[in-house]
Amino acid sequence: MELGAFSISLSVKDIDLSKSFYQKLGFAVVGGDQKQGWLILRNSSQTIGLFQGMFEKNMLTFNPGWDNHGNPTETFTDVRKIQQSLRDRDVEFISEADENSEGPGSFMVTDPDGNPILVDQHR
Length: 123
Description:
Blueprint: E1 5-12, H1 15-24, E2 28-33, E3 38-43, E4 46-52, E5 59-63, H2 79-88, E6 105-110, E7 116-121
Parallel strand pairs: 1-4, 5-7
Antiparallel strand pairs: 1-5, 2-3, 3-4, 6-7
């Protein structure tokens, strides 16, 4: 099962302060909209998202169809196929992609410790 690009999505209290901190660690802003409360930062092939007021906990994020630099991949496993594979393995979902749709979609599960995992396909 190919989950796509991996990143950490951080729920931050102050996006300005967090952006400044991660820039000191060598991360650069590569996307997002700070006025809307979200930024994507990258250091080499490491990606983090900063999200203020959008969700409660930090979460693991996978993006089918993207490489580690946010570029579209030639081939990828559709989010709905990943979802079905996990359903077949008795994984419980917090939210699900519409299996009758195509293109963008997402689902969310949690690991045994309650850590949210988002699989978010953008194309």
